[in-house]
Specification:
single chain; 227 residues; alpha+beta; seven-stranded mixed beta sheet; two-stranded antiparallel ribbon; 28% helix; globular; disordered N terminus
Length: 227
């Protein structure tokens, strides 16, 4: 019976990585960590007959930037999608090209999945206008992958990076055309909580991101299921 159940799940969720852990005869999902400051609310929930303290996790406030088509985009405003985010700038001479190649690899993998969106945010907003980003992004065909390249808009990019995604994003004081920023792809769940950082300089890290997006998709579907 258990084998039939697992086969049914695989058929319903093709391509998803289905993590099952055996404990006392029950099937359990492997859970991803939640990053950022955690605060006890002082309240409690009843789970499996036990009183468990409620925790308030760090979450990213939705923000508004402009994409490569000049369209204002409300990022993380929906509560039904997973996001993968990275920071870069088009004049970057170090790892940015490789970073976006790796982002493209992940975006192509989930191009047909409506629950996963991709956002690449420039830290060089003065130079990286929508036109510059549109030209830069052409080879990636982002329109086919729910992938937005974002620049200056209503929200402050540096505040979003530091206080939202908890990563560095500053201008290099020794060079006006150089910026310091994270080399990680960042996984965010539908509750706007950070679930993982994946350094693009290590292929296995990006491979792990692909697996963990699949895992998070299964968990999101499980949480919203009435069964």
């Amino acid at each position: 019976m258990k084998k039939i159940l697992i086969l049914a799940v695989v058929l319903i969720l093709p391509g998803f990585l289905y993590y099952l852990l055996e404990k006392k005869g029950e099937n359990r999902y492997k859970s991803l960590p939640i990053y950022g400051e955690k605060v006890l609310t002082g309240t409690f929930s009843n789970r499996m007959g036990k009183k468990v303290p409620d925790t308030l996790f760090h979450h990213i406030t939705p923000f508004s930037l402009v994409n490569q088509e000049g369209k204002e985009i409300e990022v993380l405003a929906a509560d039904t999608s997973i996001a993968v985010v990275n920071f870069f700038y088009s004049r970057c001479e170090s790892f940015c090209a490789h970073m976006n190649d790796e982002m493209n690899r992940v975006a192509a993998r989930f191009a047909k999945n409506k629950m996963v969106n991709f956002y690449t945010i420039t830290v060089d907003t003065a130079y990286d206008t929508p036109a510059v980003l549109r030209s830069y992004a052409t080879t990636y065909q982002p329109q086919d992958k729910k992938w937005h390249f974002l620049t200056a808009g209503k929200s402050d990019v540096y505040d979003v990076a530091r206080n939202g995604f908890l990563v560095d994003a500053v201008q290099d004081t020794t060079n006006d055309a150089s910026f310091i920023h994270s080399s990680s792809l960042i996984l965010v769940d539908s509750h706007r909580r950070i679930r993982g950082y994946y350094d693009v300089n290590h292929k296995k890290e990006v491979d792990r991101l692909i697996d963990e997006v699949k895992l998070l998709l299964v968990q999101e579907i499980r949480e919203t299921s009435p069964y």
